[in-house]
From TrEMBL:
<dbReference type="InterPro" id="IPR009075">
    <property type="entry name" value="AcylCo_DH/oxidase_C"/>
</dbReference>
<comment type="similarity">
    <text>Belongs to the acyl-CoA dehydrogenase family.</text>
</comment>
<keyword id="KW-0560">Oxidoreductase</keyword>
<dbReference type="InterPro" id="IPR046373">
    <property type="entry name" value="Acyl-CoA_Oxase/DH_mid-dom_sf"/>
</dbReference>
<dbReference type="Pfam" id="PF00441">
    <property type="entry name" value="Acyl-CoA_dh_1"/>
</dbReference>
<keyword id="KW-0285">Flavoprotein</keyword>
<feature type="domain" description="Acyl-CoA dehydrogenase/oxidase C-terminal">
    <location>
        <begin position="240"/>
        <end position="385"/>
    </location>
</feature>
<dbReference type="GO" id="GO:0050660">
    <property type="term" value="F:flavin adenine dinucleotide binding"/>
</dbReference>
<dbReference type="Pfam" id="PF02770">
    <property type="entry name" value="Acyl-CoA_dh_M"/>
</dbReference>
<comment type="subunit">
    <text>Homodimer.</text>
</comment>
<dbReference type="InterPro" id="IPR036250">
    <property type="entry name" value="AcylCo_DH-like_C"/>
</dbReference>
<dbReference type="GO" id="GO:0003995">
    <property type="term" value="F:acyl-CoA dehydrogenase activity"/>
</dbReference>
<protein>
    <submittedName>
        <fullName>Acyl-CoA dehydrogenase</fullName>
    </submittedName>
</protein>
<feature type="domain" description="Acyl-CoA dehydrogenase/oxidase N-terminal">
    <location>
        <begin position="9"/>
        <end position="125"/>
    </location>
</feature>
<dbReference type="InterPro" id="IPR006091">
    <property type="entry name" value="Acyl-CoA_Oxase/DH_mid-dom"/>
</dbReference>
<dbReference type="Pfam" id="PF02771">
    <property type="entry name" value="Acyl-CoA_dh_N"/>
</dbReference>
<dbReference type="InterPro" id="IPR009100">
    <property type="entry name" value="AcylCoA_DH/oxidase_NM_dom_sf"/>
</dbReference>
Amino acid sequence: MAIDFSFSPEVEAVRLQVRDFMQQEVAPRAAAVDESDRDAWIQAIVALRRDAHAAGLWMPHMPAEWGGMGLGPTALAAVSAEAAKVRIGPWVLNCQAPDEGNMHTLLHFGTETQKEQYLRPLCEGRKRSCFSMTEPEVAGSDPTLIQTRAERDGDDWVINGHKWFTSGARGAHFAIVIACTDPDAAIPQARNTAFIVDTDSEGFELVRDVETMAGGHNHCEIRYRDVRVGGDAILGELGGGHKLGQVRLGPARLAHCMRWLGQIETALEMLVERAQNRFAHGSLLSEKQGIQWLMADSARELYAAKLMVLHCAYRIEQGLDFKQEVSMAKHHVANTLWRVTDRAMQVHGALGYSTDTPLAGMLQQARWARLADGADEVHQMRTAELLMKAYNDTGTVNAGVGNLPI
């Protein structure tokens, strides 16, 4: 049998090392920091990054030649889930969004000069980046509608436009900007091009950190006013912005799912712990059927989420098409994150609704998962489209439901 759900001894050792590092080093330091003190958070992350680097736990997602651990997608799933059990865990390992996705993008699309100027400092933790695609005036789920324009002026390009939810922009040294370079392209997907824009460029204006239901989390509004860049700022090929975005966002969606697994498991563990220790109406909560059902539903959904993530990671690692699988995983895992965290809050009652536990903040953060990198409805539409294509092409739905050998 080729099916094996165990990790190699080497990968399992790394997973356990990351778990121990998060529990023993990162979690206590994070608990001691005032969440409202941004400078204190940065200082804690910088100090812990030195420790992570010394422990050999630096950039699990990047090749060894770039200073990373060189883990494949399936091994990365295990490490990312462990790291995300502590809020700042991915930051400590330098595998946080959006830098993680931007590193992959630069590695695969960047010129040697671009890699040295932008990728290397990212990998070394000396610089940060952001990804600037979503716009307030048009639907973010349809990048062919992008209104930001880049117009050629001699050897340069001049960019004008309005973006928001450019995550990570505050403190970033450069942005990967998706702009329309050919609004009349016969193929809508060929309208856009990706550019690397230094954030200290004249005309780059960080308007504000967009406040969300979870507060301000560096999802910024940006104005581009006659921002001039050279031809060497194009990342990838002219007209290749849509392709670049899809190549970036596919694995990035799965990377989010990997991190969400850690959050889901944490919420479920809190639910079980609370239920087994809270006495009400003659018995422990854990002895009540209604609470047991919450546990059982959460366990099934987390089990399915883990299998989905592992299978998607396997398909990426084997060079197989993964669009359908990742789309289904993103929808399922995001909704599982929301439901399990909400159930854990319900079992905690007023305590869960308070900020005395992490659940209130976790639930606020969980809500964006159903919007980011494709709203639920877009993934449902895409899943149905690919399912019908599979059936029409082969007479069976199997290729649309994971293409598994059963």
